[in-house]
């Protein structure tokens, strides 16, 4: 008899202007398990990490993510750095990192192990045209087209 236990995958990110790169990332993350939960970065976290506020507030970013078929649930992260408490509550089997997220996989595994979680941490590769599938590049193109 097989187990009915679902494999839970968790990803996190800003997801400010959803683009094809995000969709490819979410699809690949979903393929790692049965259930995909997205932690969308809190507005304060975006300001701190990117040096600017997000274009869209966290509630709007979460709503857009919920509409993507690969996503089973979305939670808004707490202000500040990655919340180990939130991850502990979500009980992931796998955490999938994006190719441009600046977390060290082994360091994250150690931190998770220190709070009693044995989680597989995987860095996913770029699956789409990285010169186009980056929010910063989209903002640059919008600025070039509409602000000249």
How many β-strand runs?
Answer: 5
- Measured as a percent range, the helix fraction is 25-40%
Query: How widely separated are the two ends?
Result: 65 Å
Judged by helices, strands and strand pairing, the structural class is: alpha/beta
Q: What does this 3D model show about the protein?
A:
- The protein has a single domain (8-146), classed as 3-Layer(aba) Sandwich (Rossmann fold).
- 39% of the residues lie in helices and 16% in strands.
- The protein contains six helices and five strands, in the order E-H-E-H-H-E-H-E-H-E-H.
- The chain has helices at residues 20-30, 43-50, 58-66, 84-90, 105-114, 135-146; strands at residues 8-13, 35-40, 73-76, 94-97, 120-123.
- It has a five-stranded parallel β-sheet, with helices on both faces.
- The longest helix has 12 residues, at 135-146.
- The protein is globular and about 55 Å long.
- Homodimer.
- It catalyses: FMN + ATP + H(+) = FAD + diphosphate.
Would you spell out the secondary-structure blueprint of this structure?
Layout: E1 8-13, H1 20-30, E2 35-40, H2 43-50, H3 58-66, E3 73-76, H4 84-90, E4 94-97, H5 105-114, E5 120-123, H6 135-146
Parallel strand pairs: 1-2, 1-4, 2-3, 4-5
């Amino acid at each position: 008899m097989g187990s009915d236990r679902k494999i839970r995958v968790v990803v996190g990110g800003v997801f400010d202007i959803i683009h094809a790169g995000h969709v490819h990332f979410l699809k690949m993350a979903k393929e790692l398990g049965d259930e995909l939960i997205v932690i969308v970065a809190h507005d304060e976290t975006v300001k701190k990490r990117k040096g600017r506020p997000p274009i869209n507030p966290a509630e709007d970013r979460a709503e857009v993510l919920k509409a993507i078929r690969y996503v089973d649930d979305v939670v808004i992260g707490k202000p500040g750095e990655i919340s180990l408490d939130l991850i502990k509550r979500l009980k992931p089997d796998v955490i999938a990192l994006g190719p441009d997220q600046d977390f060290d996989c082994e360091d994250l595994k150690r931190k998770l192990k220190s709070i009693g979680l044995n989680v597989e941490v995987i860095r996913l590769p770029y699956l789409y045209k990285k010169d186009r599938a980056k929010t910063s590049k989209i903002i640059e193109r919008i600025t070039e087209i509409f602000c000249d």
